[in-house]
Write a structure and sequence with these properties.
There is one protein chain. This protein is mostly helical. Helix content is 70%, strand content 0%. The radius of gyration is 28 Å and the shape is globular. The chain starts with a helix and ends in an 11-residue tail after the last helix.
Length: 510
């Protein structure tokens, strides 16, 4: 079902119905048409819901499963007839789709020996592909033109022209692939884990040094996209956010000078720039970028959700908690799209937990937020984040922290003791390295709460040295992944202390 949802959400159904193509793809009032329209309208997201709608039973029988497969096959076979939604597409993105569509059509013509029109279309397509720097498509076109003029036409001048152009683009393509492989290798370590990888900065530096000379002599779109992302990784992995911001600004200027507009690199580097402003606590500058350039991102897309993550963290790190809540509310409808990766879904579950906590302790005044805080169940929350629960030196840290803070806010001190005892073992096992220094300090501060019998003044006295240690390594220089502290520990500690009273709680434990 996820594959069908992903495919159907791309289709511009209204335009297909208006220009008559819809009737070519579907028989009117058929179950296949009903299924497609129901998915497009968001009425169904599971096989059980679809089976109930079409056949009156939640059991997905053979008829339904066959229908679903036929619908997927029908849409794939009709892909060149379909009109796709293009909201947020840049001219380069649209050109890429058009070039591939024409390329496929030309290949059909040439295999049917329609060489006059096929070669003419290829030479026209070549100019288009070169303008938008589609290196691989350009290579493919040049390969056929080289073969045609060398073996069929016997035109030595054109053969030499296309042969030399092919060799040049082949070299560019190889450099692009090398840079992309380097970047992919670096980023693959962070997809399902947000723990710090100390060796990544050094590896990124080695990679960048290898491709920097090539970047200096070649303006290839794909080469510079991957190369400049590697460059940002060097500095962001070292928490040098001022330099990272400078690298992002240079990259943005480079891509804005292109003869075509392309959202992808601008999305990537504006996102990184906002991350820098989160760590530097510059709310206004980060907010200005988000407001000015949000139109580059297709609402509900993966990149749009990543931008909203940054906006959320920018808000929580600068105590704009109402804004953080508004971001969560804006994102919520789009998370119902099950096509989004698990780590995106889980990250927003964690953010939601922090918003519910802020509402519970009165930091967010919205009535709907307060209602959501009452309904929030920490136990259910844990079942919804299986991937990051395993990220022991990464996102599992804020997960354990928020569970403890809920217990304190609810005055459920018996449960808080159990949670903090579990955290103590966790801390000694996983938080012993320098990149988790702030997390280790904060968790050790939490350990002082039951040790001081939940008496606020006693807790403050016992945690004073740890509190100073935490302040000695401020967030902007801490060697940790920026997602770990959803709310700065200094602010969370103040909130935790506000929940305590100057009276002793005796647990009854021996």
């Amino acid at each position: 079902m996820r594959q069908l949802i992903e495919l159907i959400k791309l289709i511009n159904i209204e335009r297909l119905q208006a220009n008559g193509l819809w009737n070519i793809v579907f028989e009117r009032d058929s179950k296949m048409e009903q299924l497609c329209e129901a998915i497009a309208a968001g009425q169904i997201i599971t096989d059980e819901e679809a089976a109930l709608l079409l056949y009156g039973s939640k059991t997905a029988g053979t008829k339904y499963l066959n229908l679903k497969e036929r619908l997927k096959e029908r849409l794939i076979n009709s892909v060149f007839l379909l009109e796709f939604k293009s909201t947020g597409f840049s001219t380069r993105h649209k050109a890429y789709f058009e070039c591939n569509r024409k390329w496929a059509a030309i290949m059909v013509l040439l295999t049917r020996n329609a060489k006059l029109i096929g070669i003419d279309m290829l030479e026209s397509l070549l100019k288009h592909a070169q303008h938008f720097e589609f290196t691989e498509i350009t290579m493919n076109i040049l390969s056929i033109l080289r073969l045609h003029y060398g073996t069929i036409q016997g035109d030595q001048n054109k053969y030499n022209q296309y042969r030399d152009a092919y060799r040049h683009h082949q070299q560019v393509w190889m450099m692009e692939n090398e840079a992309e492989e380097m970047y992919t290798h670096l980023v693959s370590h962070f997809v399902n884990s947000k723990s710090t990888k100390i060796e990544i900065a050094d590896k990124a530096q080695v990679y960048y040094d290898q491709i920097a000379p090539t970047m200096a002599s070649n303006d290839s779109f794909r080469l510079h996209l991957c190369g400049r992302l590697i460059q940002t990784t060097i500095h962001s992995s070292r928490n040098d956010y001022l330099t990272t911001a400078s690298v992002c600004e240079d990259a943005i200027a480079f891509f804005q000078k292109k003869d075509f507009d392309s959202n992808l690199p601008l999305q990537a580097f504006y996102y990184q720039l906002v991350v820098c402003y989160i760590q530097l606590r510059e709310f206004e500058r980060g907010q200005a970028i988000i407001q000015d350039y949000q139109s580059l991102f297709e609402e509900g897309s993966f990149n749009w959700l990543k931008l909203q993550e940054s906006y959320f963290l920018l808000s929580t790190h600068t105590r704009h908690y109402e804004t953080a809540y508004e971001v969560c509310e804006r994102v919520a409808p789009f998370l119902r799209n099950t096509a989004h990766p698990a780590q995106i879904q889980e990250m927003w579950k964690i953010y939601e937990a922090y918003v519910r906590y802020l509402a519970r302790i009165g930091k967010i005044e919205s009535k709907s937020a307060a209602h959501g805080a009452i309904k929030f169940k920490p136990g259910k929350f844990m079942n919804e984040i299986p991937t990051f629960s395993k990220d022991k030196r990464g996102m599992n840290i804020p997960i354990l922290v928020i569970q403890t803070l809920f217990s304190l806010s609810d005055k459920n001190y018996h449960q808080a003791i159990d949670r903090i005892e579990a955290i103590e073992k966790y801390c000694s096992r996983y938080l012993t390295q320098g990149d988790t220094f702030r997390s280790s300090c904060f968790i050790k501060m939490l350990l002082q709460i039951p040790a001081a019998s939940f008496h606020r003044e006693a807790v403050l006295r016992k945690s004073e040295a740890l509190h100073k240690q935490l302040h000695s390594v401020p967030l902007e220089v801490a060697y940790q992944t920026h997602e770990i502290e959803i709310i700065p520990y200094e602010d969370l500690w103040e909130m935790a202390m506000e929940d305590l009273q100057n009276q002793i709680y005796k647990s009854g434990k021996r």
